[in-house]
Structure formats: C-alpha cells, structure tokens
Amino acid sequence: MGKVTGSGESWLSDGFDDVAGDDCGLWVPGVDYVSGWRTAREAADRLNLALLGVGFELSAVRAVASTDGDGRGVVRLAGRPEAAELLAGLLGQLAEGSGGAS
Predict the structure, then answer these.
(1) CA distance 64 to 47
(2) How many Cβ atoms are within 10 Å of 86's Cβ, its own excluded?
(3) Alpha helices in the chain (DSSP H)
(4) Which end of the chain has fewer CB atoms within 10 angstroms, the N or the C?
(5) What's the half-sphere exposure (Cβ side, CA atoms, 13 Å) at 78?
(6) Among candidate residues 21, 28, 34, the one with its CA nearest the CA of residue 73
C-alpha cells in the first residue's frame, strides 16, 4: 500500500483547516453551532453503531461529533493507534472488494 503523505503532509488537514485553525475553540456570536453539532452527532452515532457491528469497542475507536468555526458539523475519529490500523485494514479490504465508497 502506498503512502498518503504529500508535500508538507498537508493531507492531514485537507478540508479541516477551519477545525484546527488559530481560533479553534472560540465561539462566534450568531453562528448556529448546535445545528451543525446535531447533524454531526447523527452521523457519528451511525458510524459508532457500524463500528460496534463489526466488533470494535468504542473505548478503542469511536466517532466524535464536533463543529468547525462556521458551525458546520464535523465528525472526527478518535481512538488507539492499533484500532485505527485495524479499521484501515478493514476499509482497505472493503475498497478492494467493491471498488470503494459510493
């Protein structure tokens, strides 16, 4: 399997610049963070159910709901490195068998 890194390893933050920006953690008056968080929570709950369904313990790896600076929902994957490696292997097998996500 090839590496996913690029110049400056910017792939780590692609699409998530707002999440890890300088103002991360500050709330802007007038931004509806709750709506974005609710959307992210629903997606995180579905992902956590799927993780449980394939045998993961949520103490090892889980989806966590959050928002970015504009109030858009964000789902982060948090867990132990060995669980992330196992999940990556399972997703790799799925991609090889079905041609990837649709």
Answers:
(1) 9
(2) 17
(3) 33-53, 81-98
(4) C
(5) 10
(6) 34
CA–CA dist 75, 64 (Å, integer)? 6
Per-residue pLDDT of the chain (102 residues; tens, 9 = 90+): 444 434 444 444 444 444 444 445 567 787 788 899 999 999 999 999 999 999 999 999 999 999 988 889 999 999 999 999 999 999 999 998 876 665
Residue 67, class by beta-carbon neighbours within 10 Å (0-12 exposed, 13-18 middle, 19+ buried)?
A: buried
State the residue for tokens 């369904």.
53
pTM exceeds 0.90: no
Task: Please name the amino acid found at residue 92.
Answer: G
Q: Quick one: CA dihedral 101, 74, 18, 20, positive or negative?
A: negative
Residue where the block lists tokens 């079905």: 98
Identify the three-state secondary structure at position 73: strand
How many residues does the structure list for the chain? Answer: 102
